[in-house]
């Protein structure tokens, strides 16, 4: 029987995806699930779904976001820079690197988290090929080859297709998780996602 899967749509410049990534990976390991990683271009998705970029939100919304970042930083024990130096850099090559690694049948959990951590903790520019090459070397085989593929027209077109597919499936934020017929938006919904996974396993066992 094929493993069940969670389809994971995320922006590589998403603070909340940074917070949620390790816990999502743990859910996958605990329950024997595949995690399908789909990096998307969030400004484009926002433009089609009514989202508002952080810089364009009201002061009240921006202030509340900072309060939440501080709460989750303490709760999870994960450091974060509230205003990272390269928080608005170009994400295309970094997203392409994840997709290229997928095509090469390599696990992408590590590189995905390392990219998010580079942006939100380490003050590194994930648009830089040098930065990405160093990150890729930590968890991927053939980092030079993969980085070359990452910027290719075919991989970048696939990145664009992921964003369009996300919109068609109802995605409007990052991180976003789809499991069976349910959608979950935000890393603060991971408990609900795991509840759905457990319920699905129970249904399967009851039919056995």
Brief write-up:
This protein is α+β, with helices and mostly antiparallel strands. The protein has nine helices and four strands. A hairpin with a 2-residue loop joins strand 3 and strand 4.
Brief descriptors of the model:
single chain; 208 residues; alpha+beta; Glutaredoxin; four-stranded mixed β-sheet; 9 helices; 4 strands; 10% strand
Termini separation (Å)? 12 Å
Structural class call reads alpha+beta
Q: What is the oligomeric state here?
A: single chain
Mean pLDDT across the residues is 96
Number of domains: 1
CATH superfamily: Glutaredoxin
Strand order in space, largest sheet:
2-1-3-4
- General form: globular
Extract low-pLDDT stretches. Answer: none
- The CATH class designation is Alpha Beta
CA radius of gyration is 17 Å
Q: CATH topology, which one? A: Glutaredoxin
Count of helical regions = 9
Written as H for each helix and E for each strand, in order along the chain, the element string is: EHEHHHHHHHEEH
Let me know the number of strands: 4
CATH architecture assignment name: 3-Layer(aba) Sandwich
């Amino acid at each position: 029987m094929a493993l069940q899967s969670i389809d994971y749509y995320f922006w590589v410049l998403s603070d909340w995806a940074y917070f949620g990534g390790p816990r999502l990976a743990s859910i996958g390991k605990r329950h024997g699930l595949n995690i399908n990683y789909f990096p998307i271009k969030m400004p484009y998705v926002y433009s089609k779904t009514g989202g508002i970029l952080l810089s364009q939100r009201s002061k009240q919304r921006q202030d509340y976001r900072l309060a939440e970042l501080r709460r989750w930083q303490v709760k999870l024990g994960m450091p974060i820079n509230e205003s990272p130096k390269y928080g608005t850099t170009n994400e295309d090559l970094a997203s392409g690197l994840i997709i290229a690694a997928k095509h090469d049948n390599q696990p992408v959990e590590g590189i995905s988290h390392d990219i998010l951590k580079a942006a939100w903790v380490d003050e590194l520019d994930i648009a830089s090929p040098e930065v990405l090459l160093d990150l890729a070397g930590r968890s991927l085989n053939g980092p030079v080859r993969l980085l070359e593929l990452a910027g290719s027209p075919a991989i970048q077109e696939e990145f664009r297709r992921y964003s369009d597919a996300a919109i068609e499936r109802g995605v409007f934020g990052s991180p976003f998780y789809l499991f069976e017929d349910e959608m979950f938006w935000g890393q603060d919904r991971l408990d609900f996602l795991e509840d759905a996974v457990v319920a699905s396993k129970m249904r399967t066992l009851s039919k056995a």
